[in-house]
Inverse folding.
C-alpha cells in the first residue's frame, strides 16, 4: 500500500467515525501536510482518491468537503438476540419461491445477488477467451480435468501470495463456482444429522444446503460490524458436537460485517483447539473499500483446518462459473468428490480467466469496481435517510454491495416484497436469511448497480410502502 | 434417412453377420441394382459410404471387396453369470488409483475415457465461442442460470424432435456435463441405504457415485450385444424394493451393447408397471455406426419415468463440460437441486455450443466422426486377431470407441495394467467396472484415436504380455 492510500484510509476512518462531519471542510493540503507529516503531493493524491470513492467533494475555490451522504444518517442494527441451541432448517421452499419472484429482468434489481454486469470488464475477458480457446491444444481440452487448469491454479496461488498467504499449490481445487466448492467441503466433513455452526442471519444458500444434506444448524449471532459472536461460538463448541463451521469472516452476506484481524486469529485458535474445520466462504474478498485487503482466517491456518472458498463470480466473471477452494488437510478428499460429481469446471472458462489474470489488468479493474461500489453505497445510504422512516436501521459495511435494513417491527418484509414487486422493485426479504424464518422486519438491498433517477424513485416508493405498514 | 444410407446399412448387416465374408466380392453395381430394386446411383453412393466406414475396399478394375478385418475374427464374450441379489459397492479407491495411473499423456491411450481431440472440430467451436462471448450482452452472462441458456435448450430440444422424441422444453435442465446430471437424478430419487439397479459390468463412475451416496447395487447382467437381461431385471423388480435403475440402453460402457427397440419398449413398460424411475445414461447416443440413430428408452416415456442424460463431451466438446437431462416428472426437483449445488454450468460454454449447433455443421462433423471410429474399430479388431491369444473374446459394438476384451482365465488385468504401463501403454482393467471387483480377466480398450504404427506396436506388445500369463 502506498503512502497516499494509507493516508486516504485514515481520513476515510475519520469521516466514517463522525470526527469529520458531513458538510465539514477537510483540512487544506498545506495544513494536512504539516499536521500529518506527509508531503503535499501525498495529500493531493489522497484527496483525489477519496473524491473517487465518493467520500469528499471539491467546491470551486473553497477546497474539499465531506459529502452529505457520507454521514451515518440512520443508526446501525443491533446484534441479533441469542437463539435456540440447535435447529432443523426449514426454509428452502420459501427461498425458492422468493428467488423465482426476483427473476424478472425489468424490475429495479435491489433484490439481486449480483452487481451490475456493466461494472465488469466483460469485453476484455471475451478477448482473453477468444484468444485462449483458439490457441488451446486439443489435448489440453480433455486433460487437466483433475485439479484444474494449471495456469489458473498458479495465478490464484500468486494472488494468495501477494496478499500474504503462502499456499501450497496442491491445496487448490478449481470448482464450478464457489457454490460447488462449499457443497464439496461440507460433504467431506459431515454426515446427515450432524451439527454445523452457521451465522444468523446467513446467506440463504447456506441454509438450503444444510436442509438438503439433512444437517442441523447451530446459529451463531453476527454483529453488524464485528462479525461472528465469538463468545457464543466458544460456548457452543464446548457444549455441542459441532462437526464444521461455515462462516464468512469478511463482508458477510447479508450484514457486510468483517471480523478484525485479532478476532480472526482467535477464531482459528478456537477451532484448532476443538479440532473443528472451518469452511470459509470468502466470495466478496476482493470488494473491500479500504486500501488494505482484509486477511482471511485462512491466513492463520497452520494445521490445515480451514477450507477457504473463493470465486470470480462477484468480481470479474459471473456466469463463467469458476470458483476454487484452498482445501487444507481436506484438499484431496474434495478433489476426489469433485471428480465423482461434476468432474471439472469448463476448461475454456478456466483458461480465459487465467489469461485475463495474467494480462488483463485485474487489479486496475478491481480498484475501479471498489470505488464504484463505495460511491453507490453512499448514494443508497443517503437516499434511505431521505425516504425511509427515521427508526429504520441500516448497516454500513466496508465493502461488497449489500445493505441490510431493519425496518420498524410492524413491517413484514415478505409482504413488503409483494407490494414492491407490484411497483417493479425487487428486494431480498429477511426471512430467507434465517433457518427459522426470523428477521421478518428486515431486508437486504443491493446497491451494485449504477445509481440513477430510477434507483432514487424506487427508494422513494419503497419508503412510502414501508411507512404504509 | 436417405435410400442409399438405408441400403448401406443392409449391406453392413450382411457383412457383420458373416453372410458376406471377409475377402468376398460384394455384388456388382448392376447386379445389386437389379437384385435389390434400387437405382445404380443409390448402389454407388452406398458403396462409397461403406468404403468410408472401412467395411469394404475397392480393388482396381475388380470392384468392391469386404475388408479382411471386417470379419468377426475373435468370438464374442458370453453374458456375465447371475450375481448375488444386492451388494454394497466397494471399488472407489481402486478406481481412483487406476485412473491416476492412466493420467500420463505420453502412454498409448487405450485406457482413456475420451476419443482423440483431433476428431473434434475444436477450431470451429472456438470460432463460435469467440463470437458469442464478444457479442453476449452483460445481463445474459448473469441471467438464465436457472435451467440453462435458452438457445442451447432450444437446439437440444430440436435434436430430440428430429430424432423422433417430442420433448417439452421445460423438462430440459442443462448441467456441468452428464456426470452432474446423473448425480442430480440419483439424489432426487434415492436416500442412503436404497437399492439401485445397475449394469454388470457398469461404467466405473456409476459405482463410485453409488458408493459415495451409500446406495446398494442390484447388479443386472448385460449381454454383450443385446444389453440388459430383462428377465433378471423383472425378477429383481418383483422381489426387491428397487428405487431407481441407472442404465445405458445404447452403446453401453464398457460392453458397447445396445438394446433393440422392442426391448427398450418392454423395459419401459416394466418400469412403468413397477413405478420405478430410469436414469438413462445416453452419452454415446451420437456415436452409432449405422445410419439410423438408436432411439432411447426415453422415446417410449409417456408418464415421465425416464430421466434421459446426454452430453457434448464425447461427440463435440470435451472439457467444455456441458451436458443435460430431460428429467421427466423429476425435472423441477433436478433443477432445484442443481441451483443448490453448482447453480449453473458455464454460460459462455453453453452459448458457444448453441451457436455451433445452429451454424457449425454438427451433423456433418458427426458423420465424419462415426466413420473414423468405425474404421478404427476395424483396425483394432484386426490387430487383436493378429496378436492376442485365439481364446480371447471381444465385443463388436455398433458404435462408440470401446472394445471389451475377455482374456483367458489366468490373465489378471490389474497386473496386466502394471506391465503395460511399464511399456508405455494404458488400458482400463475389468475390476473397475464391477461393484465387487469381478471381471478380473477383462479389459476395456479405447480405439478412439487415429490408428497408426504406434497403436499396432502397442497391440503386439500387449498380446505378448497377455500370452506371458
Amino acid at each position: 500500500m502506498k503512502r497516499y492510500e494509507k493516508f486516504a484510509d485514515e481520513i476515510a476512518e475519520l469521516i466514517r467515525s463522525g470526527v469529520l462531519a458531513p458538510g465539514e471542510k477537510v483540512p487544506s493540503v498545506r495544513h494536512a501536510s504539516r499536521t500529518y507529516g506527509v508531503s503535499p503531493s501525498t495529500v493531493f493524491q489522497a484527496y483525489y482518491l477519496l473524491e473517487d470513492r465518493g467520500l469528499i467533494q471539491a467546491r470551486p475555490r473553497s477546497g474539499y468537503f465531506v459529502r452529505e451522504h457520507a454521514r451515518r444518517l440512520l443508526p446501525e442494527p443491533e446484534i441479533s438476540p441469542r437463539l435456540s441451541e440447535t435447529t432443523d432448517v426449514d426454509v428452502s421452499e420459501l427461498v425458492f419461491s422468493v428467488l423465482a419472484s426476483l427473476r424478472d429482468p425489468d424490475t429495479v434489481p435491489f433484490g439481486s445477488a449480483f452487481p451490475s454486469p456493466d461494472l465488469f470488464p466483460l469485453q476484455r475477458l471475451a478477448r482473453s477467451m477468444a484468444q485462449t480457446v483458439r490457441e488451446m491444444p486439443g489435448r489440453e481440452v480433455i486433460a487437466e480435468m483433475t485439479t484444474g487448469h494449471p495456469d489458473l491454479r498458479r495465478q490464484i496461488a500468486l494472488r494468495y501470495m501477494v496478499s500474504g498467504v503462502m499456499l501450497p499449490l496442491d491445496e487448490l481445487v478449481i470448482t464450478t463456482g464457489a457454490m460447488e466448492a462449499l457443497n464439496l467441503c461440507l460433504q467431506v466433513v459431515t454426515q446427515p444429522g450432524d451439527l454445523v455452526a452457521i451465522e444468523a442471519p446467513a446467506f440463504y444458500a447456506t441454509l438450503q444446503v444444510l436442509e438438503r444434506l439433512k444437517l442441523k444448524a447451530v446459529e451463531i449471532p453476527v454483529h453488524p460490524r464485528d462479525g461472528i459472536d465469538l463468545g457464543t461460538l466458544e460456548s457452543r463448541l464446548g457444549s455441542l458436537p459441532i462437526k464444521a463451521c461455515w462462516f464468512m469472516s469478511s463482508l458477510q452476506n447479508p450484514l457486510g460485517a468483517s471480523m478484525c484481524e485479532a478476532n480472526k486469529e482467535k477464531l482459528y485458535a478456537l477451532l484448532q483447539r476443538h479440532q473443528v474445520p472451518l469452511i470459509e466462504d470468502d466470495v466478496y474478498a476482493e470488494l473491500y473499500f479500504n486500501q488494505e485487503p482484509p486477511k482471511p482466517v485462512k491466513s492463520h491456518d497452520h494445521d490445515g483446518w480451514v477450507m477457504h472458498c473463493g470465486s470470480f463470480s462477484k468480481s470479474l466473471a459471473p456466469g463463467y462459473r469458476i470458483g476454487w477452494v484452498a482445501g487444507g488437510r481436506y484438499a484431496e478428499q474434495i478433489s476426489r468428490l469433485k471428480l465423482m460429481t461434476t468432474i471439472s469446471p469448463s476448461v475454456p472458462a478456466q483458461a480465459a480467466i487465467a489469461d485475463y489474470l495474467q494480462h488483463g489488468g485485474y487489479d486496475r479493474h478491481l480498484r475501479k469496481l471498489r470505488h464504484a461500489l463505495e460511491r453507490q453505497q453512499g448514494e443508497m445510504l443517503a437516499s434511505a435517510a431521505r425516504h425511509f422512516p427515521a427508526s429504520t436501521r441500516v448497516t454500513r459495511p466496508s465493502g461488497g454491495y449489500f445493505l441490510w435494513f431493519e425496518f420498524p417491527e410492524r413491517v413484514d418484509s415478505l409482504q413488503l416484497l409483494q407490494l414492491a414487486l407490484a411497483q417493479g422493485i425487487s428486494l431480498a426479504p429477511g426471512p430467507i436469511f434465517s433457518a427459522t424464518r426470523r428477521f421478518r422486519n428486515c431486508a437486504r438491498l443491493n446497491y451494485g448497480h449504477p445509481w440513477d433517477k430510477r434507483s432514487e424513485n424506487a427508494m422513494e416508493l419503497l419508503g412510502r410502502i414501508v411507512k404504509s405498514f
